[in-house]
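Table S2 (continued). Query chain:
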Amino acid sequence: MNFTKTQIKQIEDKGLTIEKVLKQIETFKSGLPYVNLKSAAILDHGILKLSNEDNLAYSSFFDTQKNNLNIIKFVPASGAATRMFKFLFEFLESYNPQKETINGYINKHKANDLLVFGVGIEKLPFYDIVLKEAKKYIPEFTTLPADVKAVEFIKTMLNQDRLNYSFSPKGLLPFHKYKDHVATAFEEHLFEAALYATSKNKATIHFTISEIYKDVFNEEFKRIQAIVERKTNTVFNISYSYQKEETDTIAVTTKNEPVQNIDGSLYFRPSGHGALLSNLNDFDADVVFIKNIDNVVVYKFEKEVAKHKKILAGILIKKQQQAFTYLKQLENEKLNEDNLIEIARFLRKKLNVIISNEFEKYSYKYKIEYLKNKLNRPIRVCGMVRNEGEPGGGPFWVKNESGTISLQIVESAQVDKKNKHQKSILKNATHFNPVDLVCGIKDYNGKKFDLSKFVDSKTAFITMKTKTGKDIKALESPGLWNGSMAHWNTIFVETPLVTFNPVKTVTDLLKTTHQL
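Corresponding output:
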């Protein structure tokens, strides 16, 4: 494939190479394999269920350790709020007030989201803000017929010349209404972090955002900093990064030819949250908490959520310390066969690593090498919530091309649903991943791992999109907590539903954990 000089410069300016772009195009042509599910991870078979005593022990252990650790909370926050209001946009586009009432529209279209929105409208955190704005634009607002008032209320929320909520970053939308103020998701992450992600009363929180929003995030932090720091007795270090241009991927037509813009330049797209591995790889931290921007709760639930975060972190530190002890022994001491079996048992029982059936036949030297290779990896401890129909990646035992079986977080799009056996395993999943992770990204010598070395590149996604009305194909990197962490050591732990409170649609803000 021949690129023009202008296109080559465009590729190089993005920090990409021609070879990488050609490899991406080849991936579109050859396709990507589905994952091979061995079985669902369930309680006592891949998912740890802890007793109350265990919970208390791990939480307390983390509290004793945290002041000696460099801790970061990592929050993917680049998304705009557009999807939250999708059903409202559809309503504005298709509703005809001359021909039907809003109730008639709801019944005709079975628009349950719109019904819930209408019933709970006064409980939305931004109700008073929108009402005030609507009256400013339409002085006679309060005297309008009910249906007209409802339409104008929605327009005030969404229209670009009014509040323009749908194009705001989700992290800066009003999320929770308290007696004296309205809090954004960004603010709630600060209050929550103060309860678990602190070391010596300092909390470092990193948000990955769209660069165009940096100033508004900075303004929000300046507005609330003094209040939050006083209330939490915590000093906050807030930083931001953006999805790097070199992680963008080229888009192709349905015939696998590069899509070009009107000016002849190549059309690149962001490659999904897996691209954020590069941002995560920049950190020098002992413990990294990962949690999405929209997964927050009102204050009265924060201590319960924080408790389970500390439990996961306690497990991480405890298992990591033992792994480091074993790695130093493997490097410096003469170990006997019983010692090696003990380490292999730790890998299998505590880190869910399937040890080769041939292990006992290996030479002493290769056993040492094998155990070091399996132990010396990043560790992730992931909360898993019982599946109650919410979307999200699930925990599974997966068999790769070389026959190795490992614990993985798998999205349903990665599974061949035409294969009855694979579909059956998918249906047997009892839990899902709410993006609730605590990660150890340093080795036993205190050096950062190069996280790019632990990615399974074959777990990328090819998705269908449209551009100017035409179908195109897009390539997404292996998901940050999916294939990007495929070769990490993994522990799955059951956590309660209170830890999962995403706001995917605006009516989610009416749920108990988002209401005072």
